[in-house]
Amino acid sequence: MNFKQALALLELRGHGNKKNNLAEVKKTAALLGLQDLPYKTVHVSGTNGKGTVCFLLAKNLKLNGFKTGLFISPHLVDICERVQINGKKISKKDFALYLSKVIKKETVKLKFFEILTLLALLYFKDKGVDFAVIECGIGARKDSTNIIKPCLSVITSVSLEHTQILGTTLKQIAFEKAGVIKPKTPCITGVLPTSSKNGIKTIALKNKAPLFTVKREKTKLQENQNIVLKAAEILGLKKKTLKINLPCRFEVIKKGKRFIIKDGAHNPEAIKELVKIYKNSPYYNKENTLIFACSQDKNYKTMAKILNPLFKNIIVTEASQNAMPAAELKRYFKKAQICTNSKTIDFKKLQGNILICGSFYLAAVF
Fold first, then answer.
1. Global pTM exceeds 0.90
2. Could you give the CA distance from residue 96 to residue 286 in angstroms, rounded to a whole number?
3. For 16, left (φ over 0), alpha (ψ -120 to 50), or beta?
4. pLDDT per residue over 97-113, tens digit each?
5. Is the residue at 35 inside a domain?
6. One domain, residues 226 and 260
7. Cβ distance 41 to 150 under 8 Å?
8. Spatial strand order in the sheet of 354-357
9. Are the C-beta atoms of residues 153 and 187 closer than 8 Å to each other?
10. Full domain range(s) for residue 316
């Protein structure tokens, strides 16, 4: 199987039926020799901030001399970004090879993310990593990443998202995110809503899992950095850094005399945090242009309410197969122009600095 064939297979597995239960994923994992991993893992769940914590923690582990795997989602440009060792993504040749290894052992028809999870865990095993930082896909309790037995768990945040899958209340969503908590295994959380916090405390107590919560800060970025510092302390890391340029997390690019800010914020809580940083940055001006797109399952109405007052110029667009039609977004971004193909937006015609948000897929286009 070559890389092109591997992508075609994943595309077929990404649609249609619901994902398999964990018992089925574990059967294939066992056949691949993944029931007891020879490396330590850190399991990261949460609504927002997972990617930031994963990148920073992996960076710190590498800094301390550990060969470190990193499994993240989504990817921005290349699917190989999802599987990395010491900051270097898996090659296309290895991606196809390891996908083929997983498929040969599957006991049921695995779905897109289930295949990628097993591919990553097997790749890390064969390449002899010391640690792997594993980011949950959706939720945690039923997520395919939850076959691992971590030495440390993290819940970055809890807010309403993927409600059709995880539940319609913060309490229900917290229960799903708390799936990362394992018996007698330390867990770190960000600052959580009371309804979420109480449920997570109960689950931690039931599992006799030490629970640590970082202090409230002015921004969620600072709280996420504190999570990384606490994780470094628990893991006994001596060297620590919080300096890393994260793609599409308030990523600033200078283009001529203007600045382009790309951010993957795609739900109301993340948009609120983005706005907080943006309004206090030197790039903020009401004459600036907003480019916005989002997936169909996102709360675009609330995001529109937050963003509308900040911009005189707005373009709504589409950037993925599951994108909310720009014409629908226009109903809530009333001042907006419609450009259905994000790749055709002409930056030369836009006013001021440009903020791109609503979707990692959109941010990755530019």
1. no
2. 47
3. left
4. 999 999 999 999 999 99
5. yes
6. no
7. yes
8. 251-255, 258-262, 354-357, 289-292, 313-317, 337-339
9. yes
10. 251-365
